[in-house]
Every structure is written in C-alpha cells, then in structure tokens.
C-alpha cells in the first residue's frame, strides 16, 4: 500500500541523526526501470528551498532514477551554501547507488542530474552534511522492494502517522507516500509526496495526469493557509508492468492516490480536532467555487467556531462576502451537516439541530448562481494548533 | 478625550438589555450644529449588515444629525426584516430627538434620513426591538455634553477597555470613539468608529480627510484577517468652532485620532499577547509594501511563533514568498526588534540575540527593491484568541 507496491521500485528509511529524537530522517526511493520517466509539481511560493530549485532542474531532464528525502531540516533560506549542499547530496546519492547494484542486476547508470532531492523541517538552517551523507549510505544499503513504509516513516515531521496509499488496476498500479501536518495551504498544500507507478508512460502523459490529479486533491486542502517553501509532489514511472494505460486511466489512478494521501494529510493536520469539507455548489464557475471554499476554509473565526462546536453560519457568510465570486448576499443558502441553518442569506432552521459532536463536518454553501461546484477540505483552529506552532520552532 | 470634546456634540450610553451581561449597549451621538456635514467609510465586505446598507443611504444625503449605535447584535444576515428594523430604529431615534431639545435650544429638525445606524454583535439574529427602542428613549434622555465616554462604553463587545481619542488644535479639535477586538482585518479593520470635529468643513473636505486617514490607520491593522459585515467609520462636523482648517490640517488631525484609535484596537485585540509592527522598507511601491506587510501580519505560523517568543524569520520569508511584490529571495533582509537575523535571504545574526520578552515587537523587512515603505500593525495568535472565538458564539 505504498511506493514499493508498483513493480520496479525499492525504498528505504533510516535514522541519520538529523532529528534530535533519533527517529528515522533519511529516505530513498529508487526506480529500477526499465523506464525512468517522471513529472513533478512544486510549491508556488517564490521563496523556494534549495532542494526545490535543484529538483526543478532535474525534472527538466525528464529522468528521475532516485529521490533522496530528509526530514529534520528544510534547507530553505540557506543561500548558496544550501544549494551546494543539495547538489552534494544528489552527487553523493548517485555515487553510492552506482556502487550498490540491485542483486543480480547491472550496476546503475545514474548521475546527480537523475536524483531529485526533498527536504522538510526548520527553515533557515544549514543541514548537518556530516550526518546526512552517511545517512544516504545507510539508506542505500537498506533499499528493499518492500521498503516503502520505512521511507514514509522517515519523512515525518510533526505528522503523527505515516501516510501511504495505493491504487491497484488490472496489471498495473500507482502507489504513494506523503508527509504533511503543518503549513498546509492552497496552491499546493505543504508536503512532500512521492508517487510511483509501474505503468509505462511518457513525460507528457505523466505531467498531464499529475497536474490534473493535484488540482483537485492537494490544491484543495488547506490546514492553516500557510504555503511552504518546500512543497514537492513527484511522480515516477518504471514501466515494469509493461502496461500503457491511457492518460485518462492514469489520471484516474493517480487522482485516487492523491485524494487518499490528501485526506490523510488533513486528518493528521497539526492540532486538528475536526475534518471539515467545505462543499460549494451553485457557483457560476469552478474557480468561483474554489475561491469561496478556500476563503471559508482559511477564515480563523470560522475555524475557531468549529473547534468550539458552534454552527456559526454568520461567520461563514462574512467570509463569503470577502470573495469576488458571483453571488447575491440574500440568495445564499448554508447547511452544516445537512441542516439548512441559513436560507436566502438569513437564519432558517434552528442552529440547535446541528450536531457537531463528531469529527467530520460538512459545510454546504449554495451560491444559487449556476451549476458549478468544488469541495475544499480543511481543519478547525484549536488550542493544539497554537501550542504546536508556538512551543517549538519548526 | 472623546467625541464630546469638540464643541457642538452630545452623547450618551445606556443599558437596554440587549447584552445578557446587563452592561450598556445603546449609544447616541448627536450633532447640535450649526453644521451637519459628514463623511463615512464602510466595510468592503459584500455581505453588508442592514445598518451599513441604511447608513450608506443616509450618507448620500450628506447630512448626519445623529448616530445611534448598539452592541449585543450585528443585525447582519437578517433579511428584509433586519433592514426594516434598522429603518424603524432611525425613525424612532429621529422622533425621540425631535421631542427632546437641547436645554434652551429650538426643537431639533431631524428625520430618519439624518440618522446613521451602527450595530455590532452576533451575525444572523434579529435585534430585540422591544428592548432597543426603549433604549433609544433612555439614551436620548441621557444625552450630555460630556457623554462621550458613556457612548464608548456602550459599544464595547469583547473589548476589555473603552477606546477614546482626541486631537486638539488651535481653536478646534477632533475627537473619536471606537470598538474593535475581533474580526479586525485589512480593507477596514472590523469596528465601529465615530469621529467628531467642531471644525467647519464641507462634505468633500471631510470625505478626503477621512479616506486619507483611514487608508494609513484602520486599513493597516489586522488582528485575525477576518473582515466584518458591519465596519463603519463616521466623521461628523459641527462647525461650532467657527474655524475652517485646510484639508491638509483636517486630514492631519483626523489621522492622529484614527491612528490613536487603531493602536488602541490592536492593543486590545482578542487574545493578543503581542503588539506587532510589520515595517516593510525598500519596496518598489507603497502597494507592494502594504501587500507584504498584510500577508506577513496574516500568517498563522508567524503569529503563533511570536506567541511562543520564537524569532522564526523563516516563516516570515515563507510568507513574503506568497506575495506578488517585487523582490528577489536572496536579497531580503529581516530584523526582529532591531536584530538582523536574516541578511540576503539567509541566516545572519544569532537568533538568541532577539529579545521577545516584551509585549511590543517590531519586524523590519527590507525588500531592497526601492524606496517605498509601509507599516502594518497586528497581534500574535494565542490560546486566548482560540478560546474567545470558540467558547462563545460571537
């Protein structure tokens, strides 16, 4: 149920001492082919971490043979030394992998330019290369065809559970791992995600499938409105299944994995006590629906109300009012968990009918302007969020 | 030091039973002339409360003889009945004031169209008119030339202190009252503000002075990024001083009062433990500086870091990276309380040198792109903010 479920991949996760806790912090995912096509989506943040700048260059070549990931440090806002460190990490990874071939296989033909790098952790500090590079050695030695879960463990930061997913199709599959927890925001929720498939697909097909999938999954979750410097979603194809799905088939399977991982990210977001779906209906356009959903999802007064089990639809309308979406204030309907407490922009069913005792909350907003819709997933704003983000530097 | 400091104004505040606490909740500010010119700025929220829709119409006439304000209910998202209630409140206020003349003065010539209405409190519920209208009677009877502080008391919601301010000039003055506390956001912080002056000024001069003043004061504070449905800033001129300052002189004095009140609002924002100035320098344009300041001020990870006394400049850079302002990531400098912990987009002085033990925090961001700047004032995101906005419906 992870990145090593599709054939042609090995993975590992080891503890290299980057995390003070001693937990695993260096992961490797290796594509053993026969194909090495890849696609990626990166953070929209203009302040990009060194590994993002590096991996963007790697992806231009269209080939990714390995991904090295570390937690315990974001290597963002680290200047030219930070970029040199990322480059050195890729060089070292390639060199180690050239020396360690798969049992019974030919030595890997791999250069630094085939190695994507992902980092996550505190911004603004250089990585301890004296720990990271030996960690890469250990991770390379630990590579295994069932190593996906260990890689998922090693990229966790404030995540409380590892995230793995798989979509099985007839003769081929898509698998994935993710880390998230904080800094989850629109235009790529903050996270590192590696998705693998044993389907055979060229770069254009992979790119189309990945962009279509992330647009309706990772781009529609928002935990705290804060966009990270390190967001990366990688899709690697090994072709080991000898199957070549259509772009529609591949998109559908990649979307299934992305949706699964995105929901796991929201479910495990820092301090969350609620898992909230903001369903916008009746919008004049999909972009209107997405805008309204994101603004409501990002509103601190709405989020604190849900933490307090308060079906405060007035705050929801006040948030909708700050958007540029087509709507008339006196036509909007709002339901919370199926109870239409606001009709035509004013109070309707009694708020006491709304049951907010459970973890899952669905807010339905009908703009009554058209036929389009979108759903944004978010969390509440709790004491635990404030605690996690104030008590520790991260 | 309040709205009744300028000559020609009376004010009052009484308890009408709108607040469960029994505290004062209805206020009146009356302009006794000889002039009745006025200007106003209203919320940019497209979901506007009934009193905002009403007062916008009143201001089109250019004359405001009285302002009736209530806490204990926002009268927002209340449909056509809510608007009828606001209209009835203005009619009732005018009728009562016609019957109660100033001692020794002629009866007031006042109609409902001369009465601005402001409301604040929970969204989505109708006001208890059977309590509000008798409250207006009591407030009219209580009108006094030193009643400003009582009016300031009566408009408080989660405010912990009343807000009053004055700017004294040679022979004339400007005074003001304000309420704020939650829902403080750009494009008019959420609040009700009444400003008075005994200067003589036509509507155009008042409008120019008020817009110039609010642009650099109330528009540059942001407590929680949430824009209200009820924001109103009114400026009333009585002309009782017989002085006619230039538009520059009036703008300067109105700005002084607005700045004073805006700082009081931020100082008393819900749950705030820090009073934070985000000073943006070196911007290519003022709008770039304002955008960067607002985005940093609104970032939950930055706000929780300050609550935790953590000089987390990485989160500040990550926030700057989400703007469209002109900047290069590797040229930005950031200081916290005067310590330049980030230079050229990377770590510089040791973060341990930053003293965050006090309440006041200054973040200086130098984009090094030009000569423009702006300062946005904000607060931290604390446990108390979450508590105030989750434990009670507001």
Automatic annotation (TrEMBL), chains A, B:
Reaction equation(s) it catalyzes: N(2)-acetyl-L-ornithine + L-glutamate = N-acetyl-L-glutamate + L-ornithine; L-glutamate + acetyl-CoA = N-acetyl-L-glutamate + CoA + H(+)
The protein's Enzyme Commission number: 2.3.1.35, 2.3.1.1
One GO MF term: L-glutamate N-acetyltransferase activity, acting on acetyl-L-ornithine as donor
Matching Gene3D superfamilies: ArgJ beta chain, C-terminal domain (3.10.20.340), L-amino peptidase D-ALA esterase/amidase (3.60.70.12)
Keywords linked to the UniProt accession: Acyltransferase, Amino-acid biosynthesis, Arginine biosynthesis, Autocatalytic cleavage, Cytoplasm, Multifunctional enzyme, Transferase
Active-site residues, Swiss-Prot/TrEMBL: 190
Pfam family, one: ArgJ
UniProt-annotated site: Involved in the stabilization of negative charge on the oxyanion by the formation of the oxyanion hole, residues: 120-121
Chief location: cytoplasm
Alphabetical list of PANTHER family matching this protein: ARGININE BIOSYNTHESIS BIFUNCTIONAL PROTEIN ARGJ, ARGININE BIOSYNTHESIS BIFUNCTIONAL PROTEIN ARGJ, MITOCHONDRIAL
Record's function text: Catalyzes two activities which are involved in the cyclic version of arginine biosynthesis: the synthesis of N-acetylglutamate from glutamate and acetyl-CoA as the acetyl donor, and of ornithine by transacetylation between N(2)-acetylornithine and glutamate.
Protein's name according to its UniProt entry: Arginine biosynthesis bifunctional protein ArgJ
């Amino acid at each position: 149920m992870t990145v090593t479920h599709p054939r042609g991949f090995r993975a590992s996760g080891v503890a290299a001492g980057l995390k003070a806790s001693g937990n695993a912090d260096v992961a490797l995912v290796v594509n053993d082919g026969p194909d090495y096509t890849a696609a990626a989506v990166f953070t929209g943040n203009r302040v990009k971490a060194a590994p993002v700048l590096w991996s963007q260059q790697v992806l231009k070549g269209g080939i990714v043979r390995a991904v090295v990931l570390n937690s315990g440090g974001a290597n963002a806002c680290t200047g030219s030394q930070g970029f040199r460190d990322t480059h050195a990490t890729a060089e070292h990874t390639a060199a180690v992998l050239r020396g360690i071939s798969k049992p019974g296989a030919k030595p890997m033909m791999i250069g630094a330019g085939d190695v994507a790098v992902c980092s996550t952790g505190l911004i603004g500090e250089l990585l301890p290369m004296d720990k990271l590079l030996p960690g890469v050695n250990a991770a390379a030695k630990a590579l295994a065809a069932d190593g996906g879960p260990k890689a998922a463990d090693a990229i966790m930061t404030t995540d409380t559970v590892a995230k793995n997913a798989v979509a099985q199709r007839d003769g081929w599959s898509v698998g994935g791992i993710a880390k998230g927890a904080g800094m989850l925001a629109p235009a790529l929720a903050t996270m590192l995600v590696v998705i693998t498939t044993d389907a055979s697909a060229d770069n254009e097909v992979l790119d189309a499938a990945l962009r279509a999938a992330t647009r309706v999954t990772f781009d529609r979750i928002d935990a705290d409105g804060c966009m990270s410097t390190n967001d990366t979603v990688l899709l690697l194809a090994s072709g080991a299944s000898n199957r070549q799905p259509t772009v529609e088939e591949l998109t559908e399977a990649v979307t299934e994995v992305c949706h699964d991982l995105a929901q796991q990210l929201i479910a495990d977001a820092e301090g969350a006590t609620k898992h909230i779906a903001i369903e916008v209906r009746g919008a004049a356009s999909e972009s209107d629906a997405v805008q309204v959903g994101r603004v409501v999802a990002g509103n601190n007064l709405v989020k604190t109300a849900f933490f307090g089990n308060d079906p405060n639809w007035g705050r929801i309308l006040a948030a909708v009012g700050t958007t540029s979406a087509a709507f008339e204030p006196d036509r909007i309907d709002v339901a919370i968990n199926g109870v239409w407490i606001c009709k035509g922009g004013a109070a309707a069913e009694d708020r006491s009918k709304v049951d907010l005792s459970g973890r899952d909350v669905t807010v339905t907003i009908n703009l009554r302007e058209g036929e389009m819709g979108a759903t944004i997933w978010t969390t509440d704003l709790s004491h635990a969020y404030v605690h996690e983000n104030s008590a520790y530097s991260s």
